Amino acid sequence: MERAVHFQDTSSSSSSSQDEEDSDSSSSKKPDPTDLDSIPDRMKFIQQGQGSGIIFSHDGFVLTNAHVVDGATRVSVLLTDGRRYRAKVMGTDDIVDIAVLKILPPTSTATNVKKDTSSSSSSSTVVEEYGDVNSGGGRNTQSSSSSSSSRPLPVAELGDSDTLQVGQFVIAVGSPGGLDNTVTMGIVSGLKRSSEVVGLPNKKVEYIQTDAAINPGNSGGPLVDVVSGKIIGINACIRANMEGTSFAIPINK
Q1: pLDDT in tens, 111-144
Q2: In a designed cystine with 55, which of 92, 131, 236, 246 is the match (CB 3.0 to 4.6 A)?
């Protein structure tokens, strides 16, 4: 996920007399995009990203891709039933592209800080979380916050990616383009695809190849064995300029 600071000029065409006095010294100086302290607050805003994830513990631990939360100063998780929580990044492994998050209790004031937040410019990430993929049900936004927060978190059941075979049916679950609960179906097209072959030489993963469609927003979501309903991979990336060629990190990794 690309992290950048964007700028927009919100200045008015009219100015006060004091502004006119300072115009000579300030008009010739433009903000340096690499120096956040030199950028006026009115020209900063929050950049928000989105990805998917897997709740694998009743304690609220979540698996997702490291690139989904890379550079984020604030992370929140949105469950498929409409519940939203703040989350803290507990650790990342950029070599494998895996991150572990911890869902914070509703009353917690803890924050997820991965870099200096003294500047008003920040980056946030919303991670769509998936638990038991067999439970079904859509998003319910009518439930009260008190009753929803007291409900246990749905927990996904992890499978064994070492038993996968080429031709096995799988589904990819995620939130591509914000379209939550999107499911695409395909087969296991290949196994043990090296990072170099995939085009990510800086990673150390032997990927599962599938033709199940994966798009931006699917990253970090589950790849599920259709027969058992268990998660056997974490959707990670696609091959540029090649349709029907997606890759997932084996869950045993």
Answers
A1: 444 443 333 344 556 666 666 554 433 444 344 4
A2: 131
